[in-house]
Design a protein that fits this description.
- The protein is α+β, with helices and mostly antiparallel strands.
- It has two domains: 137 residues, Beta Polymerase, domain 2; 139 residues, Four Helix Bundle (Hemerythrin (Met), subunit A).
- The protein is 42% helix and 14% strand.
- The chain is built from eight helices and six strands; from the N terminus they run αββαβββαβααααα.
- Strands 3-4-5-2-1-6 form a six-stranded mixed β-sheet, covered by helices on one side.
- The longest helix is centred in the middle third of the chain and has 27 residues.
- It is elongated, with a radius of gyration of 24 Å.
- The model has no long low-confidence stretch (mean pLDDT 96).
Length: 292
Amino acid sequence: MKSRTETDMMNLILSTAREDVRVRAVILNGSRANPNVRKDIFQDYDIVYIVRKMESFTYDHSWVDVFGERVMMQMPEEKVLPPADGHGRFPYLMQFIDGNRIDLTLIPAEKIEELLEPDSLSVLLLDKDGLIGYMPPASDRDYLIKEPDAQEFADLCNEFWWITMNISKGLWRRELTYAMFMHEQINRNVLITMLEWKAGIAADFTKSAGKAGKYLPNFLPAEVWEEFESTYSNADFNHIWEALFTMCSLFRKAAVKVAEKLGFEYPYEDDKHVTAFLKHVRSLPADVSSIY
């Protein structure tokens, strides 16, 4: 099946809104509102419909069939796992068989001030009643890497070195899921934040690293990115240990550089003590009765 073009999709989104008296305004969010993002085939249409008679939409979901034949749809507000937000918005996440995707969120008109959060990546496409008012030109200003203060820096360093000890515990116990959760879901994000700060300094905090640091390869030296790639592992415990120590080395170098540039104190003592602890735990036999 041939994919509908961007013009096709935008005409469909807007014509549906114009023809439905319940829809009072339409806003485009996300990457398609970002002038600094290169377009690609996987860009979603992040759309907000400001509506009246909200319950008339959510009572019978078949109205979204107008957007096309779907691979599948997700309605987060009707799920128990993960639990619904219950704040009053109603998103429809729709993947279509032609490859297009619309993430359409309904917001009741009477709750605009409460539920329509400010977002610099917003373009007002339709406003039948003047509900929204002026919107400045879309930009990624809300998503730029933000300069940390001394407390934020200290907290991030503390979190990183503390979690490494949890990882070491899981590795010694051979608890793969626990160790990898700590490594990937916790410390991976901590490391990415530190690398974002490093990249932010180089760019004078005028760039966005994107969701989950996806643009970091554009801002970091090639050798730093190669070292970051080495922090990913497979399910082999020795490989995870090596990835952990690589992560420690990369975090240390990035954090020391950030501290130097921003005038912060790097916790050298924590680093030294925890690194020694990690090396000791790695050397422990499986049958010991005490850590030391």
